[in-house]
Amino acid sequence: MPIITVKLAKGRSIEQKQQFVEAITNEAVNTLNVKKEWITVIFDEYERENWASEGQLHSLKFGEGFGKQGTK
């Protein structure tokens, strides 16, 4: 029974998360040879002010809207 945890910054839409869940579930079924109903996906979402890389908070490094419409 695979449990897949996805950690990401808040800001993705329900549609984006649903599309991701479908893709990752299908890939897990194919790769791990398990039934679809056995797959669980959990999102751990973080405020950008609680995530940092290269010594800088993401809220400062990327700004408020970063990631909401993709990474462009």
TrEMBL record:
Residue ranges of domain 4-oxalocrotonate tautomerase-like in the record: 2-57
Keywords per UniProt: Isomerase
Keyword Isomerase: yes
Alphabetized InterPro entries for the sequence: 4-OT-like_dom (IPR004370), Tautomerase/MIF_sf (IPR014347)
Molecular-function GO terms, alphabetical: isomerase activity
UniProt keyword Isomerase, yes or no: yes
Protein family membership: Belongs to the 4-oxalocrotonate tautomerase family.
UniProt name for this protein: 4-oxalocrotonate tautomerase
Natural source organism: Lysinibacillus antri
